[in-house]
Amino acid sequence: MKLQLEGKRALITGSSAGIGESIAKLLAQEGALIVVHGRNEKEVNRVAQEIATSGGKAIVAIGDLRTDEGAKLVADKALSVFGGIDILINNAGVYPQTSWMETAPQDWNEIFNSNITSMVRVMQYIIPQMKELGWGRIIQMSTTLGTSPWPSMPHYAASKAAIINLTVSLMKELTYTGITVNTVSPGPILTPGLEVMYREIAETKGWGSDWDEIEKHALEELIHIPSGRIGHVEDVANLVAFLSSPLAGYINGSNLRVDGGHVSTIN
Prior knowledge:
Blueprint lengths: L8 E4 L5 H12 L3 E6 L2 H13 L3 E6 L5 H15 L4 E4 L14 H29 L2 E6 L12 H20 L5 E8 L5 H14 L5 H11 L11 H12 L10 E4 L9
Helix pairs in contact: 1-8, 3-4, 4-5
């Protein structure tokens, strides 16, 4: 299936590693022009160079979206170099692993700035020119914890729930503009962060160091995934690429899980 993404201009925030990197590379493979964003200049340049080496086109935008100045810097770079942005993937965020009583009120303020207000800043810069184009795709990256939270990481889960709510509100705001707004909520995905966490658990439980064995024990003892495996970043990128395309024009305001059935409830 051709996704008709040739020449579309995409800004993927937080695309210097993990899910964001995978999304950037897949959209580039489909012919999109990519703005790779992050705060680590070395890693952002690495991703852009790897896209270019594979025949794609990418520029870099370095900036801290937690500040008005940083968000404006990133948006201005994206808009000025490519002349506009057709696709905005709001992927940047943080996920500190703390318990309820370890999470201070200031931690709540900080994570909402990192995970919510940062998105709002970028969108308020990008949306006006999308309206002028009469076409656009905005995709927010949440998590299954947004609808099925754990007792740990309460501020993270709450911020991700807010993203799902924000998506529907923004979709209504953008009625008849040609812009769609959707949320993608991954479940357990094998990112560098998740691997580190599970290897630490494996060490305490005596599961050994072989990843296949660690994953087997994790599926048996920690997480129930009917699909029988932990997800890969490509699983998420495939869905995001489709939602970014003209083919997904009738999907709007949705929260789509990519979790192998991990959350076994209606959406």
